[in-house]
From TrEMBL:
SUPFAM superfamilies documented for this protein: FAD/NAD(P)-binding domain
Full protein name: NAD(P)-binding protein
Gene3D superfamilies assigned: 3.30.70.2450, 3.40.30.120, FAD/NAD(P)-binding domain
Cofactor(s) the protein requires to work: FAD
Alphabetical list of Pfam families matching this protein: FAD_binding_3 (PF01494)
Keyword flag Flavoprotein: yes
GO molecular function: FAD binding; oxidoreductase activity, acting on paired donors, with incorporation or reduction of molecular oxygen, NAD(P)H as one donor, and incorporation of one atom of oxygen
PANTHER family cross-referenced by the UniProt entry: BINDING MONOOXYGENASE, PUTATIVE (JCVI)-RELATED (PTHR43004:SF19), TRK SYSTEM POTASSIUM UPTAKE PROTEIN (PTHR43004)
Origin superkingdom: Bacteria
């Protein structure tokens, strides 16, 4: 293991995706986890469109879509009746190749990631626990307890803590984790059932303050129930069974539960680590931020952390960037995590609020208002962009510069396609590249050729204008498919300045 360049602590989705991306970029990784093996139960379900877009770089997107389940609609229930039906069919049409809500349970997701990681010759080392962590100017040193009980010092240039909300890495670094804990106890159950709520759609019971949602899974009659427990039962969470918490869902949604495959209870925190980086160690996923499950953002945000950090680590380790590039990881991802925690807090507090007024707003006003809002194209687009994370941007941050058309440096490259070309096709390669929509000047063509930067030139079409791209402008795309530089002119001076000022080499 002496040639390991990045040690990853934690083999959940965040750690596995980081290991995959680094392996894809030629970085030697070691990934360990104190668990005995991959998870067999999970809470995370949604795989958002932005995650699927990025999964194209690992040839994962098609498999996830094929094995998962697309949710056509969300139903809101009040007093045992459907009060509203919100269509999700092609809700993101024209914005992404994945204009839908995809359900793919975390335990199945992890198995797929482990399988793909094995294709790079990397095996997760289970039963391996981090005991101590120290650092100097040259390396991080992790004291590990191996499966046989022996201890080992693993010395690596960089270490990534992907080890969850109770992160041993975060504690070893002495990084604070301010925030709080929701008073509600959550339960989650994987069931085989029948009834009107088992129709492949999402169903949410808005009655009273005990939130209950039925998420469809691939296969006939399979569903995931997620709910809250607010009364005196929550005081004895360790003794709760499915029978203790399922009566409301069964009564209100007329569920006939035939088999409970697994059941668990848990509490949810809303916290953001004070730092995402300390010297040669990084925090990602739940080790860095935890929040309400509202909107299915948690797992996807951790995966986003991993992809953001992976190409930066690879650039530094391959001598194409200085260590300063790694500072941008915290700048970009911490800002998003803080916004996400605030937003999910607001949504969850509305759904779970107590009191007569809150109950009236939730059961009377919300179904009517949401039905009307979802019928409006702009509202549907806004909601999809927000939940799918395709609206996430890094504007006004160190790696983002310029504007061309409606696209700013730091934006996700807009998807634009027609019968002749799809501008996302070339993004499968995780490298720096330049896009031009229209005509590329000789200077730009020569500059890219001299530096071996792929130049993609697309014949101008109405699809490009509709996506907000500017004709004949150029867009420098980062390896994670965000726009680094948007330049309306064809001058290569801006490109040269971009790389020089940030001490970056594109190849």
């Amino acid at each position: 293991m002496n040639d390991t360049e990045v040690l990853i602590i934690g083999a959940g989705p965040t750690g596995l995706v980081l290991a995959l991306w680094l392996s894809r970029l030629g970085v030697k990784v070691r990934i360990v986890d104190k668990a005995t093996g991959p998870g067999t139960t999970s809470r995370a379900l949604a795989v958002q469109a932005r995650t699927l877009e990025l999964y194209r770089q690992l040839d994962l997107a098609d498999t996830v879509v094929e094995r998962g389940h697309q949710v056509p609609a969300a139903n809101l229930w009040v007093r045992g009746q459907k009060a509203a039906k919100l269509s999700l069919q092609n809700i993101g049409a024209g914005m992404t190749p994945y204009p839908f809500l995809e359900i793919y349970p975390q335990d199945e997701h992890e198995k797929l990631l482990i399988e793909r990681l094995q294709g790079f010759g990397v095996e997760v080392q289970w039963n391996t626990e981090l005991l101590e962590l120290s650092q100097d100017e040259e390396q991080a040193v992790a004291r590990l307890r191996l499966p046989d009980g022996h201890e080992e010092d693993c010395r690596v240039p960089y270490l990534a803590g992907c080890d969850g909300a109770r992160s041993a890495v975060r504690k070893a670094l002495g990084i604070g984790f301010p925030g709080g804990t929701y008073q509600q106890v959550f339960y989650v159950a994987d069931v085989q059932a029948s009834g009107p709520a088992l129709d492949g759609e999402l169903h949410v019971d808005l009655d009273e303050a005990d939130f209950v949602a039925v998420f469809p899974l691939a296969g006939t009659g399979r569903a995931r129930l997620i709910g809250t427990v607010r009364d005196e039962r929550a005081e004895h969470v360790e003794n709760l069974t499915f029978e203790d918490v399922s009566s409301r869902a069964i009564e209100h949604m007329q569920l006939q539960v035939e088999q409970v495959n697994w059941f668990s209870t848990y509490r949810v925190h809303h916290r953001v680590a004070q730092q995402f980086r300390r010297h040669r160690a990084f925090l990602l996923g739940d080790a860095a931020h935890v929040h309400s499950p509202a909107g299915g953002q948690g797992m996807n945000t951790g995966i986003g952390d991993a992809i953001n950090l992976a190409w930066k680590l690879a650039s530094v380790l391959h001598g194409k960037a200085t260590d300063e590039l790694l500072d941008s990881f915290e700048i970009e991802r911490k800002a998003f995590a803080e916004r996400l925690v605030a937003t999910t807090d607001q949504v969850f507090n509305f759904v779970s609020a107590n009191g007569r007024v809150a109950n009236l707003l939730r059961t009377r006003l919300a179904p009517v208002l949401l039905s009307r809002l979802m019928a409006m194209g702009k509202v549907r687009s806004f909601m999809f962009r927000t939940l799918s994370q395709i609206g996430l941007n890094y504007r006004l941050m160190p790696l983002s510069f310029g504007t061309a058309g409606h696209v700013h440096g730091g934006d996700r490259l807009p998807w634009a396609h027609d019968e002749t070309a799809d501008n996302f096709a070339e993004l499968a390669r995780p490298c720096w590249q330049v896009h031009v929509y229209g005509l590329a000047g000789k200077d730009l063509t020569g500059w890219c050729a001299a530096r071996q930067i792929p130049l993609q030139v697309f014949a101008w079409s109405p699809a490009h204008e509709a996506a907000g791209l500017a004709r004949n402008a150029f867009y420098l795309i980062r390896p994670d498919s965000y726009v680094a530089l948007a330049e309306a002119s064809s001058s290569t001076a801006a490109l040269e300045r971009y790389f020089t000022e940030r001490s970056l080499r594109p190849c």
